[in-house]
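Entry: Membrane protein
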Amino acid sequence: MTEFWELRRPKPKPKTTVWLVVGAVLVGLWALIAAIGAMAHPDNSGLGGMANSIDPYADLGYLAGQMLVAALIPVVVVWLLLFLLVVRRVAPERGMAHFAVLAAVGLLAGLSPLAVTIASQPPEDPAQLAIADKEIAAALVEALNPTQTGTVDPTVKATGEAGELERLSKQMIIAVQTDRQHYLEELHVLSDPGYLSGKWLAGDRSLNKSRAGLAEALKTVAKYRTLNQQRLEEFKAAVRASSVLTERHKRQVLAGIDRSLEETRERGERVWTLDAATIVELQSAIEDLARARGRWGPSGDRIVFSRQSDLDVFNQHILKIRAMGAETDQIKRDMQASIKARSTP
């Protein structure tokens, strides 16, 4: 009996290399695009804080975490598609090996933009950022001084990008403070005594000068309110045009400005509203004096009334005007305290 022996070689498993290469390309492109998108998105930390403590290393760490997540999503999605559609049927044992390859490609592609950024734009020295942060906060506090007697030091103490931010910030703050001083000089009616003092009214028996002056005062409030917004836009334009700040830090600064505006817009608008309301109250007081003509007269800096009811109405105007002035000063003190608290380590 003759026996025949046949040596059978194991049937080779289909290759999945081509599919793996296709998957790796997809993962690489997807992760790279996602990472670039994460880099381009302005975050809520870093150099743009203006009176917040700034840590560029924490900023980069946060960004790296975002980019890792952005890279892992395409890795998982592409691997699942590759495994379920191809690998599971022909070579399931290669699944984890393929995942490792795709993960390596995804992480490499996802973190490469950050690596390039770190190499070309190293983080700013935290010590310089702290100096700039302190100087900007001090300038803001000085500019918000209700007495308007403070002077902002224009000297730039920090260096590098932090110094550039300090320079631009102080330039804007000084411009706003100067505008405010000119504004108050033009609006001397906001000082007490002003249009309602006996000395003024002695020279304006007809009250026509008071009416005309207060009408101009309302226009002045509107003019400087617009100028205040213009200064902010000038600051943003200066940041964008800076040849010292990197594009990433420009985005952070602009994002910080927008965040600060969200926090302070209501109080800032309230100050302008109070200024306008004070003038309107003065106008009401002048019209009440016109209606009480013949029942009052100036005596030095005071006004003497012959009827108690007229005096009561006049005093109500004075109380409202002083209350609005006190509220304005309190808002400024609150803003000062807030900036000091945020800039204190």
